[in-house]
Amino acid sequence: MKKKTRPAPSVKRTRTAAPKAIAVETDNAAMLFELVRTPAGDRLYLRHFGARVADTAGALALAGHGGHPSALGSEKPLAYSVFGESGGELNRFGGLKVTHDDGAPTLDLVVEKLERKAGGLVVRWRDAMHDFRVVQTFRPRPDADVIETNAVLENGEKGPVRISRMASFSLVFPLLADDWRLLGLAGEWGGEAEVVESPLARGRRVVLESRSGVRDAWLNNPAFMLSVGGPATETEGRVLGCTLCWSGAWEISLRRSEVDILEAVGGPANVAGDYVLDPGRSIELPVAALTWSEQGKGQVSRNFHRWARRHWMPDGAKERPTLLNNWEGTFLAFTEPQLHEIMDGAKQVGVEMFVLDDGWFGRGANARDTDDRGLGDWYVNEKKLPHGLGALAREAKKRGLRFGLWVEPEMANLGRCDLLAAHPEWALQEKGRPMRTGRGGTQVVLDFANPAVRDEIWRQLDETYASIPGLSYVKWDANANIDNVGSAYLDAAHQGNLYFDYTKGYYEVLARQRAKYPKLDMQACSSGGGHMEYGSLRYCDEFWTSDNTDPRDRVKIQWGASQFYPACAMASHVTVTGRQVPFKYRVDVSFSGRLGLEMQPKSMTPRELEFAKNAVKEYRRIRPVVQQGDLYRLVSPYERDYAALMFVDEAKARAVVCVYGLSRDSRRNDPPPLRLQGLDPARRYRLRELNTESWRSPHSPILGPCADFVAEMKAGPVPTGEALMKVGLPIVLGDKDYDSAVFELVS
Questions:
Q1: N or C: which end of the chain has fewer CB within 10 A?
Q2: Domain at 323-624, CATH class
């Protein structure tokens, strides 16, 4: 017998309060919605997303007549597009796709209620025939020109609902342009954040995605820009920006129809199968942040940076400390006296923190002396550190240093840790299949969908943290993918929930840590830049940008990261590199992120130590400008044989300019004047070059290439911001591979 479809619950309609035009606005941008009443139910359409318009009624009247109705078909500009009913036609492409408990595979969402909150909008949708609801929210951040949006899915049906496609956002844009250019970040280990831009062709669908489940910012980054109406530059053109704040598997699709309607859908990816939402349950999907610029890509980046610092990150306004990490100085082989010696070097250099990396934990045969054992056992290796972590932290404090620690809580070593010996079911695993292992031939991912696993890992971490007086920093690493797609905790019907529930479990542990240790700085590391995303940055203060610390490569990596992420979130360390790179160049490149060192100080020459000491002092002085200022990208390393960028503080009183040569042609030493941006045209700015070594020979590869020019500027008139922006700053780069300069401008 065919199962009858249950009628939808009765809904009391209010026909008088809802306005026809509804605007969600920031200082310079707006989303303009229209509520349309139909016999089948109320629909909410997105009529405009772009520059803020004072005349909302006029804008709505104009936007509502764009395009011939018959040409639009099912691609109507709904505020939340789904697979199913779309104003009289079947939408085959919509973002949210569910199968109801009676087997019906489509949705027909009508507006049940609209509510205004703090200038934002909460839309309560319900299916016209099933007790399934979507609560969609649009939250404006006016001072950053960003609008946050996400959705909560609620199952009021009598049986489970299967969710095939999740959608934090599922927008159909109303005939904005007939030319779209998509910019995103690609790359893998050692080559993160490569800027890739290409036209979005008519009739095509482009999918950006990650299926790792852990290292979610490799291959693609969960963020994009769309140039609207033709190619945009850093300073010109209309650009739409979006970032999905999620740390697990995800998918973003962009489809341009044959009549130039653009559909953008993004949310978690159901890699292991449908997500089963049981009756009476709800799930909250991650936030997506949307922004708009009429002044090119650079403004999109600045919008995201301001939003992150002011509204999203735990404490985006605080200054990130300089630090020295022992990893590349010792790797896993260290002793207490060696660490004390490195701390002495850290004190000599002048950094503010010492961070102990991998190798401090595990006992007996599972002691972390090699990378194939110890993960999962977060207690100190007393053979290696006989006086414990607390004593090490006290040694750091004696030297005026804060103390930080490395952990990798999501992972364990199969057969080489006490945790899995006692609870083998706590590793992700596929029933009846052999385990796949990663790093060291033993590394597996723990089942963070299981509350018992999260509780035990947090118990160990909390006990460790509490034993360290004044613990200031945690580097949280994650060096594996979900390669065993199964959970002993989830039953057979819910195995498809694994990827989503795992990520929610990860956040739950991070939230516990943030709640109990609110002042603890935290880095999200994942085999390099695998957690270069805003999901982790909701709880963390920074990410490890890449394991590739070669400074020439880092110029491009950090340039790419800056498209969406602020400098205060980018850990940028001076290290020993495979290529023979001048120490000054390594330091200068690290000045455009959060400066740190990752090396053995005793291996540095006396001159390098002195240079590093002066550079750290200078960085700490200009740090507020770099970490909290507005970024302007001046010369792209993708277009020229050098790169230039600058930071300007909010008052426009100070600026920092960084210039990096990149395998320059010896016949072209003098680039065009560097036209600065973001300055106050009326102010006068004194110029000073940082990180120079005047005591060296003029032919030294470490000598500041612009030192003579700066000396001449000191004797002449002080230029205005107008002159620096319209005429430009003369710069000189030598014919060597690694010339660089860092300038400070003070009004």
A1: N
A2: alpha beta
